[in-house]
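Can't paste images in this forum, so I'm doing it all in text. The chain is below; anyone willing to post the predicted C-alpha cells underneath?
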Amino acid sequence: MCPGFLHFPISPSPHLPIPYSPLPTMTSIELFTFWNKVNRLEHDNVVISSAYVQIDNFLSTAEANQLLNMAVLKEPLFEPAQAKTEYLIANNVMLLRRHQFPEVVEWLSDRIHCILPTVMAQLKVADFAITRTEMQLIASQDGAYFQRHLDQHPHDSRKTRKLSYIYYLHQQPKPFSGGELLLYDSKIAAGCYETAESFKAIAPRHNSIVFFHSRNAHEVKPVSCPSKQFKDSRFAINGWIHR
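Text version of the structure:
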C-alpha cells in the first residue's frame, strides 16, 4: 500500500464496482490541509510539545571568537533584512547573505552536518537525504525582533525545509538583553496542525546552536542594546536543512 494515496477495499463480487469519488479541485494549500486531515488520528485540542536541541560550546573558543570578529568587520556589507510572509516580520534586523562570508560557510556547514545524526535522533527525525543547506548571518540591533512565523510552507520553495538551526554569538559579557527564541507548541484542530499559545523560551547563549523542526512556529523577542553599537548586536548564523 503506497503512502499518500486513498485505498478502497476490493469488492467481494467482481460484478460490484469499486466505490470511487474523485478529489475536488484544490489549491496546493487546500490539498496539504486535506491530506493532513486524512492522516491525523489525534483528538482535537491535544497540545503537541515542540522539540528542540540546544548544544553549548558548539565550537572552540578560538573559532567562536574568529566568527564574531568576522561578523563585526563585515559591518559595511550588512543590509536590512526583508523577511516576509504575508507581511514584514523582521524589524531592525541586519542580514549578511551566504555568498558574503564564503570563508565560513563550507566548514561551518560540515560541522553542522557532523552533528546532525545525534540531533535527528533526539528530535525523532527519520534519516533523509540532505539536498541543500541554507545559511545567513543576522545582526539584531537595539529594538530588533522577528514576529511569529513558520520556516516551512507547503506552497513555495520553503516546503522542503526539514530542520531549522540558529548558532548564537555575541560579545562577552553579553551587551544586550532580550532576543529569546520563542518556540511554539502545536495543537490539533479540526484534524489539522495549528499553532498553540504555549511555547518554550530559549536563551541566545553565546557559542550555542539550536535545532528545531521547521514546521514549528517561532518568534524572536525584542533586543535591548543600550550602547546601540553594531559590535554589541545579538549575532546569529541561522539556516535550514532541506530534504
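The helical segments are 28-39, 61-73, 102-123. The chain has one domain: 47-242.
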